[in-house]
């Protein structure tokens, strides 16, 4: 249960998730159906693949694991807050407002957010590494708890939050607080022996995905017929946001694994100057579009997997599902293997496919008499950018 850097994967649900996904995706039944489909079709092939993932949550630079927040409570019972995180469509501000509303026991409509700025919360760490909900949520909760402790005598006397706040104000109680959070128990020192180096990650977010794809052997075109994703986000802060993040990360992941090829000038590309990047815009660098998304996409959140290391026992979700998109890559490889068997290759014959597995690479890998003449003319990627 230890990683290669000797960190114990505590409360790891991957074995349970693997079995649950295998059953919920009907893997065995569909695998048999795909084999029958491939026997009956020469120019269209299908493949199925299931894989797990784990993603460590924390900045590996220890000093970056800190966060601040500022919370004000007003006499009308409303709350204004801000923190050091940046909203970029991932729902961070929504989650933070939920945390404040839950802390004070008030409706979310009573909580307002002031946009992030260094004049309110200085020295913020980057909004990155999927850790923002964790650290800024805890900083916000810290500020709310400070105010709530001051309000405690009044909350015990009065029936509602607004009345308690007004009574506290009349008694000259401070209704504003700065919150701060530093992730405890992490740090990694390379100079120490392996078993003494420390703990680089606060915890791990786990996931598993099963994808079925169909390829056109004559053109290399590929479509994802179905993808089942099972993700452990602990006690989700907001399931709707988290499912959207999973869908987005998965889409970005299969784009990275099957579409998004970078082309640089080299000796094999005489039409491009050495060192020049050809794929500099959407005309040449292809990202997933509407028609690339799985025909059938199913996302499920793991139940009964509370995470005591993060805010309200949740788990971070932004980047962890990204690698699951490569399930489409391995499913496509299985489909290619079936196509190669039809040309005389032995079952389970070894062959190499590179990432991203573009239609061109799929077509060349199918190894029929036509493509075998050109299979070595395409340079292999030397670096992922």
From TrEMBL:
Spans through the membrane: none
InterPro entries: Ald_Oxase/xanthine_DH-like, AldOxase/xan_DH_MoCoBD2, AldOxase/xan_DH_Mopterin-bd_sf
SUPFAM superfamilies, alphabetized: Molybdenum cofactor-binding domain (SSF56003)
Residue stretches making up the Aldehyde oxidase/xanthine dehydrogenase second molybdopterin binding domain: 22-294
Protein name per the record: Aldehyde oxidase/xanthine dehydrogenase second molybdopterin binding domain-containing protein
């Amino acid at each position: 249960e230890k990683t290669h850097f000797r960190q114990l994967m505590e409360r790891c649900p991957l074995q349970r998730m693997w079995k649950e996904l295998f059953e919920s995706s009907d893997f065995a039944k569909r695998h048999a159906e795909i084999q029958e489909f491939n026997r009956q079709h020469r120019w269209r092939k299908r493949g199925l693949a299931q894989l797990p993932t784990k993603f460590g949550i924390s900045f590996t630079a220890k000093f970056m694991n800190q966060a601040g927040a500022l919370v004000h409570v007003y006499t009308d019972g409303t709350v204004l807050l801000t923190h050091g995180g940046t909203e970029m469509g991932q729902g961070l501000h929504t989650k933070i407002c939920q945390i404040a509303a839950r802390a004070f026991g008030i409706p979310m409509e009573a909580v307002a957010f002031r946009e992030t700025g260094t004049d309110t919360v200085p020295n913020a760490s980057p909004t990155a590494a999927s850790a923002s909900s964790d650290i800024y949520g805890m900083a916000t909760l810290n500020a709310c708890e400070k105010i709530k402790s001051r309000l405690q005598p009044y909350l015990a006397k009065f029936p509602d939050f607004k009345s308690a706040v007004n009574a506290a104000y009349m008694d000259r109680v401070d209704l504003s607080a700065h919150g701060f959070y530093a992730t405890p128990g992490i740090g990694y020192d390379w100079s120490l022996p392996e078993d003494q180096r420390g703990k680089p990650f606060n915890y791990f977010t786990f996931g598993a995905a099963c994808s079925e794809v169909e390829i056109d052997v004559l053109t290399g075109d590929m479509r994802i017929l179905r993808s089942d994703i099972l993700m452990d986000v602990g006690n989700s802060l907001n399931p709707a946001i988290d499912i959207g993040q999973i869908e987005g990360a998965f889409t970005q992941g299969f784009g990275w694994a099957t579409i998004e090829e970078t082309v640089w000038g080299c000796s094999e590309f005489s039409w491009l100057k050495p060192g020049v990047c050809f794929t500099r815009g959407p005309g040449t660098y292809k990202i997933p579009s509407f028609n690339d998304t799985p025909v059938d996409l199913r996302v499920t959140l793991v139940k009964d997997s509370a995470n005591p290391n993060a805010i309200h026992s949740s788990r971070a979700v932004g980047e962890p599902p990204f690698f699951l998109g490569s399930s489409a890559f391995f499913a496509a490889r299985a489909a290619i293997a079936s196509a190669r068997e039809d040309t005389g290759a032995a079952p389970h014959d070894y062959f190499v496919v590179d990432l991203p597995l573009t239609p061109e690479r799929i077509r060349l890998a199918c190894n029929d008499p036509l493509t075998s003449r050109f299979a070595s003319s395409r340079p292999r990627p030397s670096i992922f950018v």
